[in-house]
Amino acid sequence: MKAKRNIQRFGLVALVFTLFSFEAVADVPVPDIPEAIKGEQCVEEIGFMRRNHMELLSHQRDDTLRKGIRTQKHSLKNCFTCHVVKGTDNQPVTVKDPRHFCRECHDYAAVQVDCFQCHTSVPGGAKTTGTRP
Amino acid sequence: MTLSVVYAILFYAATLLLVVGVARKVIIYARTPAPLKIPVTPAPTTKAGVVWRMTKEVTVFQSLFKACKWTWLFGWMFHVALALVLFRHLRYFQEPVWAVVALMQPFGQYAGFAMLAGLLGLWARRFLVDRVRYISSLSDHLMLALLVAIGLSGLAIKYLAHTDIVALKTWMLGLMYFDLQPLPSDIFVLLHLGLVIVLMVIFPISKLLHVPGLFFMPTRNQVDNPREVRHTAGWTAK
């Protein structure tokens, strides 16, 4: 009886030990979030932005479109003054490019962005074609 | 980081219990002899017919439909919605995400509400139908409460207090790559994951075993050929 219990105990210790001694099989795939090209601080705190940027953009949209209040702070256009990814031709890439700032995470989390059916996805107002990314 | 480690250990343990537990039960079910030939008639007389019968049983809950339309309505709604919701959750376990999983995301969101509606209907049945209330035990209610709580906490992450979804996925992938990552410690995320862990642990020791159990029903999985082939199983084979 005692021997059996010892074997069980040994098995348990071995199991726990194995779980924690695993070397990472490979690096976890993470989105390659591009650095902002200027500025130290986003318009809101970073954890808040990661959770709630969509609310800010929708709220801004409602204020602007339905109430006529047009401000700079949370505007989509303002995002692209800092968050720009340049392609090989040194021009900002549009949302059609998977390296685009929005797409890095949105592709990763499989969340569809519908901003760019109408809005431009690059600074300076260059028009996107209006097709879905 | 402490929370990440605690939840990681709980997830590994729960997964182990779920897989080993269900496998053990399936082996027990498979070894249990069905000594009598008891397909419920009218029953298919060929093996292909049985496959078709079981397919209908699994996908549209045929015998439940024949038995009780209300239970079928809510039960089927819950199960189909759950399937969609689970399919939607695949995005946390794969990188890159399959196109079909990405495509199904919005439908999975609606399914979240349909799932809750189905569960609440099934729960109402346990209170409102006298015969069912009489045979409902505490565990029947607790099981529904657990599933409702999982659904509510999941919807809360989506519609009340968002989480850092990228960090959450990285944590989940980290479990699969044995490379632990920080878990975003939002209350609804912790609640949702905690309740899912509870569900995984009690799955192999609860009524939820109807999932594998369904396939072992002798009244549904037998061919109706008692005159053509002599039926032997277990002690009748000796």
Order of helices and strands of chain A: HHHH
CATH topology of chain B, by name, is Fumarate Reductase Cytochrome B subunit
SSE series of chain B? HHHHHHHHHHH
Note the quaternary state here: heterodimer
> Which chains have the largest interface?
A-B, 24 and 26 residues
Name of the CATH first level of chain B:
Mainly Alpha
Q: Strand count, sense and closure of the main sheet of chain B? A: none
Number of helices of chain A: 4
Structure described in brief:
The complex is a heterodimer of chains A (133) and B (238). With 133 residues, chain A is mainly α. Chain A contains four helices and no strands.
Write up this protein:
The complex is a heterodimer of chains A (133) and B (238). Chain A has 133 residues and is mainly α. Helices cover 43% and strands 0% of the residues of chain A. Chain A contains 4 helices and no strands. The longest helix of chain A is centred in the middle third of the chain and has 22 residues, at 46-67. The mean pLDDT of chain A is 80. Chain B has one domain (2-237): Fumarate Reductase Cytochrome B subunit (Up-down Bundle), CATH 1.20.950. In chain B, helix 7 runs antiparallel to helix 9. The longest helix of chain B is centred in the N-terminal third of the chain and has 30 residues, at 2-31. The mean pLDDT of chain B is 95. The interface between A and B is medium-sized, with 24 and 26 residues.
Indicate the topology.
The complex is a heterodimer of chains A (133) and B (238).
Chain A: H1 2-21, H2 46-67, H3 76-82, H4 101-108
Chain B: H1 2-31, H2 47-60, H3 62-67, H4 69-89, H5 99-128, H6 130-135, H7 138-159, H8 165-176, H9 187-202, H10 210-213, H11 218-221
Helix pairs in contact in B: 1-9, 4-5, 5-7, 7-9
